[in-house]
Specification:
Blueprint (H helix, E strand, L loop, with lengths): L3 H16 L5 H8 L5 H13 L3 E2 L8 E2 L1 H11 L9 H11 L2 E6 L4 E8 L3 E12 L7 E14 L2 H8 L6 H10 L3 H15 E4 L1 H10 L4 H8 L2 H5 L3 E3 L8 E10 L2 E10 L4 H8 L2
Antiparallel strand pairs: 1-2, 3-7, 3-10, 4-5, 5-6, 8-9, 9-10
Length: 281
């Protein structure tokens, strides 16, 4: 059962996310019809401030939740399953709210065979389940016998290595190529990802974040090229992945029956509950 202090902390965080301005005790009481007196609320505000959960610019101003308070708040609320999403609403809300969303199709493509072209090139042929791209449904999965090829320079040892990969999925081979330092193969596979099964909604917001926090170019490319999606499992990412004050939420979900992975990136002060309520189907 939530105690009084935690209840008031959650209330002020919610009020701050809705208004993005410092919240006073009387204002909080009025907003949510809280039964406690303003003096009682101020007393708890002081305790929460001493514990590092609330900040106050000067003695007469209202309080704002700290980064640590927002991190704990969202960590408890964003660990949930998201069975399916509405793609059009995702675009609309991400744009309105200033969120960046990275989308990667979860492929079932498998390596079918490797063709040696006169010991000069190797052609890796994958069998795939295609995404039909049309105006009504951005993502509509249709199983076909289509295949596609990735071409790399021939190497005897590498040819043997890849032959052992026949039957493995595209994602497996992409991941393994990075682990073993097969940079040329990884680069060619990444090109396919970028051109066919990877999308970024609201790229400019992420680039603004990268400039504001002076992110390393290598780290930026991990996001823009889709590599970061290979490393993430479903969950909330609050440290290491992004700068302080930012949050990443990764979900395995579906669009029109197609399995996808999404990574939502934004400032901790955004109303993620509103966002997810709006895109869930």
């Amino acid at each position: 059962m939530i105690d009084k202090k935690e209840f008031l902390l959650h209330s002020i965080i919610k009020a701050y996310i809705e208004n993005l301005e410092p919240i006073g005790s009387s204002q909080l009481k009025s907003m949510y019809d809280i039964s406690y007196s303003p003096a009682t609320i101020r007393g708890y505000f002081k305790k929460l401030g001493d514990e590092g959960y609330l900040a106050q610019e000067h003695i007469s101003s209202g309080r704002t939740p700290t980064t640590e308070a927002l991190k704990e708040y969202w960590a408890k609320r964003l660990e949930f399953d998201l069975p399916s999403i509405d793609y059009d609403k995702l675009i609309k809300l991400a744009t309105q709210m200033g969120l960046t969303v990275f989308i990667k199709q979860q492929t079932t493509d498998t390596l079918h065979r490797i063709l040696n072209v006169e010991n000069v090139y190797m052609i890796l042929e994958f069998y795939k389940a295609n995404l039909a791209n049309n105006t009504e449904n951005k993502y509509a999965l249709t199983t076909t016998d289509d295949s596609y090829a990735v071409t790399i320079k021939f190497n005897v040892a590498f040819h043997k290595f890849l032959t052992d990969m026949i039957g493995r999925t595209f994602d497996d081979i992409l991941d393994i190529s990075q682990q073993v330092g097969a940079s040329h193969l990884h680069a060619e596979l990444s090109k396919y990802v970028q051109n066919n099964i990877f999308e970024i909604i609201n790229t400019k917001n992420f680039l603004h974040l990268a400039v504001e926090y002076d992110l390393d170019e290598k780290d930026v490319n991990l996001f823009l090229q889709g590599d970061v999606m290979m490393k993430l499992e479903q969950g909330v990412y609050l440290d290491n992945l992004l700068p302080q004050g930012q949050i990443g939420i990764c979900h395995d979900t579906k669009v029109h029956g197609t399995d996808i992975k999404i990574l939502v990136v934004g400032d901790l002060s955004k109303d993620f509950e509103y966002f997810y309520k709006g895109i869930a189907v």
